[in-house]
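We modelled the chain as a single entity of 349 amino acids. Its sequence is:
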Amino acid sequence: MASASLSDEDNPSEGESYVSDESLSDEYSDDETDGQKEPCKYYNKGGCRTGSRCPYLHVCKYALKGNCRNGSKCKMNHPRGGRSSSGGSSRVLDQSTSTNVKLTDGRCYQWQLNDGNVWMDVDNNHIIEAQYSLPHTKSIKIYNTLYGAVSIDFNRMRVFGKSLKVRRLDDGNTVWIWYCTLGHKWIKYGEKDSKGNSSPVKSSDIEEKFQSNPSSSFTFSKGAETFEIRFKEMRQVGQKRKRRVTRRPLYQRQAGAAVSQAVPALQNLNLGTKPQWQFEGGSGWHEFRRQKGTQMECSVTSDDIERKYQQNPHSKMLFKVKGHSYELDFGAMIQTNLKTKHSRKIRRV
């Protein structure tokens, strides 16, 4: 199975919905850029002593240009063609290949891992994509890969604890959605906030500017205040406050990988620990349990929620606690009392 880690959003006081510099410093520290921009000349001459530590690509330089005469008989590695896309909160564009070829075999996207020699497709990668499309999910751990269990950091597009690289390829038609933090929720640019106020800028406007220059920024005004979205820092900066910003793809179901197929795919993966669903209370985090005969009698368990989540990680579900109706929103990772409209954070650990 794959297990996802959720971002821990601050819960500011009323009227204070921005994230401070201190809370951003760890998550958005300077990241190393991927130095593999050009093919290694020594590898192409017959051997490189540096091996997997080499900062250059160990691939056929002619294949990169698309004109290798040896084709499949070539003794050197050939890159798996694809358009490399950057998203999430990563401030560094994927520079792991000098090609910009789009996927042309009908796939919308493909996640790949590289051990320093060649990029390899990840099986069941629609599970990764589904998690990556959720703005609050910062990482995922997948099992039974060629390299064993692998933890992928979505924010920085790297693998934890292993000498592996990760990338996401697409067909050039990915619809990217921009979000910012508002309270303890990620809000899509262009959507109304909890007070019914519309954003003065659309997600598509931000994406258009990002595509033209990923190192630049996007400026807009709301009332008398001017805001700047800094793409390199993935922050929205105002005169007094800051917000975290992220960029995630709109989830698309691959041909042959419908949402309902995610369940058997997950069940076929090895699970280290079963994910647990929890809600935040006054004394910390508490697991969803039935607890019959108590004041906290609940109509669902953590396992019930997990089964619903595996069917569609973007859906919602209803449940009751002592006769009071609640709604779980997997996209926002909150539970809401349908009568009082009071919300609590939930998480999957």
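As a brief sanity check on the tokenised model: The two ends are 13 Å apart (CA to CA). Helices lie at 21-25, 41-44, 61-65, 125-132, 203-212, 262-267, 302-311.
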